[in-house]
Specification:
The complex is a heterotrimer of chains A (about 240), B (about 450) and C (about 170). With about 240 residues, chain A is an alpha+beta fold. Chain A is about 25% helix and about 20% strand. In chain A, the strands form four sheets. A four-stranded mixed β-sheet of chain A has the order 8-1-10-9. Chain A has a two-stranded antiparallel sheet with strand order 2-3. Chain C contains four helices and four strands; from the N terminus they run βαβααβαβ. Classes of the chains: A alpha+beta (about 240), B mainly alpha (about 450), C alpha+beta (about 170).
Chain lengths: ~240, ~450, ~170
Amino acid sequence: MSMKDTDKKERAVKYKWGMVIDLDRCTGCGACVVACHAENNVPFVGKELSGYGRAMHWIRIERYWEGEYPHVRARFIPVLCQQCNNAPCEPVCPVYASYHNAEGLNAQVYNRCVGTRYCANNCPYSVRVFNFFEPSFPEPLDQQLSPDVTVRTKGVMEKCTFCIQRIRRAKETARLDGRAVRDGEIQPACAQTCPPDAIIFGNLADPKSRVFRFSKSPRRFRLIEDLGTDPSVIYLKGGGHEHVR
Amino acid sequence: MSMSDEEDLTPEKVEAVQQDLTSSMNPPTWKWFLLSGFLGLVVIWGAIAWGYQIRMGLGVAGINLPVMWGFYIVSFVFWVGLSHSGTMVSAILRLTKAEWRRPILRGAEAMTVFAIMVAGTFPLIHLGRPWKLLYFLPIPNQRGLWPNFRSPLLWDIMAITVYIIGSSLFLYLGMLPDLAIVRDRSSGWRKKLYSMLAMGWRGTAHEWRVFARASTLMAVLIIPVAVSVHSIVSWDFAMTLVPGWHSTIFAPYFVIGAIFSGVAAVITLMVIIRKAFHLEAYLRPIHFDNMGKILLTVSLLWSYFYFAEILTTWYGHKPIEWEVFIFTGEKYCFLLGLMVLGNSFITIPALCFKRIRRSVPAMLLISLFVNVGMFIERFLIIVPILSHRNVPFIWGDYRPTWVEVSIMVAAFAGFALLYTLFAKFFPIVSINDMLEGEHFKSEARLGRAKLKTIITDE
Amino acid sequence: MSNRVEILGLYKDLETAAAAAEALVQGGFSEKEITSISSGPYPDGVIVKDEGRSFLRWISLAGGMMGAGFGFLLAAGTAWLYPLHTGDKPIISLFPVGIITFEFMMLFAILGTIGGMFLEMGLPGFKNKVYDPGISQGLIGISVSCQDGAQQNKAVEILQGAGAVKIRNEGQP
């Protein structure tokens, strides 16, 4: 097969990246948060700034308490960029730093961003984080910076990319082999790290993929669905209390 | 000096009027230098604060994850609001040929120009990377970058640019005949400057006629621009999905709010100009009375809009909107109360009394109170609503820092400085409009009384 | 050879100035050749009549239409050249295009008005046209454009006869 043929074959495949997060499996351990920080060169801002809403997690574990003591229960939701198909953050950007790419990703172009922070205001999930200061990676953190991802500068908005660097790499490999990306070949850092395997990533355009099958689960729901943002992240949650008790 | 006793305008009288109206342009005294120097220092301090912010990053301001817009955007909306009435009031009064408009026009138009200039700097200050400003502008470049015209911020940039250009030209147009007068009264480098600005105006009958036509046309054209500017500012908020912002009433509500704060600011400036340049004979109680009536009307309108907005939220009781509602009411109770007092409960009853409307100190107090109220209104629209958005986990709080306060204060100083300089170089009351008014004044005997009349040209 | 010159007579008040204009008309000068120069506006016909049509409104309208076209092309045309998808908005979205079109329409209409005004006034003109600084101090000038020679003398005579404070010729410092 010539290079041209493999190229064509790879391009003919339609990708629509999506994620399923099974809340009945999530233990709220926070491994995904750590993995994300490491993979994507997300800076740490320290305790004090974190307390004042300057934390920069691309994925966060939201913890809600339910009930009154002694019948208290914690619930966890990992929240990351929902990669909305009708993303409210995109049209408000005056410089196209936030736009929609052909694979359904809500892309963020750091070099274009001027820092109006309009997108962050219009994100109903508040998952966009801003570089309030120049990010610093004090030793030995600088040793673990990922070479595949740029380090952003101050004054720039950033957010979860579904580990786009891993998507790109897998697609390149697939192209060389003249095939489509296999199901499960791509794992974002959060999915890879998740101990109870609560996060499933894959191609929603492929009806045979694992993520597609889970996305049709009767336990499915999406965050603040009534806003019509059409997120690509699908949560699973059982109806009754039996799953958590 | 009273001006309406004699019937004819003699050269002596014209000279006296001109001397009075150009008194702001007399050589500066040490007091003037002191004031300008002080204002200049405050502006420099604000510039230093901004420089510090550019160097360190926006983190030195109080904004954070839920509250991504803070004092800068509050100030932006406030100053755009102030810029509204000047031109709008002037245009409406011109078109309706309200005779009492004459001494107010110039000061109001100048206020618009400087307020919109100050407003225009705030979006720049609030940027994360202001040095990338060019990305906003539709300039073809090799990087393939282009602005997104679907973004309300781009509409904002366009509308404000049009408004700055339009209102500056409106101010200049009204000043053209006055520049010729000032040209003839001055000497040296000033004469050269004014000759250039006056463009060789002589005052022929033809020039005056074209001038009148152009003034009317400009007044007609500038009103829709003014309305569009503040509508678009409101759409920066209303186009989002943020609960509390996403509302159809926002555009007219903001326009009314802008006119409200702007009329109040015109009154404040009238008091200051009257006192500073001893124009008691020109800015008379009747002017405050009429402006007071306008202020009363707009105050009623604002209260009506506010009530409609609040009522809808309260009755609908949508959980998230209700949360914002309750949060604002609890945390910002004091500010909320102050706003309602300043904008409605004190202003409306007070302005119903002619004696209050005709009292200069009372009007100063009311106009200041209105603008405090309107500043709070903008704050309450932006900060509490952003604090409590859809995701309760991210609910937060906002504390302005010294950097934001410094820049905000510097904006006031900058406006005052621009205004002071303008008054030093240009007549702050329109001479030609005043003289035109004098030509049309007359007296008629009716029964036993001698009444003042105005000759109209219909 | 005869050149056209402009002569200016200065009067102390409105009544004498109007009388001078009237005398000029009686003396055979046409309304077109006479104009008043004053530091304040007078309704048409009080001193002189300014006949002639104005195209100012049409210039504004033309400006506005040009601006609308420009704004439309800028918003719709360039969006089409840079087809980046954002949210669920179409590449050429009518509402935003309408807003940009409106803003540019108003901008060009305003520029057209100011430009048209200067065009109609014949300004800027920095050449030494007949003028007197006294006009700024309340004198009213009646200026008449005439042939030099006999007609000029006649004009000077009429202006003087009407009680001019001062007579000035074109080009005179």
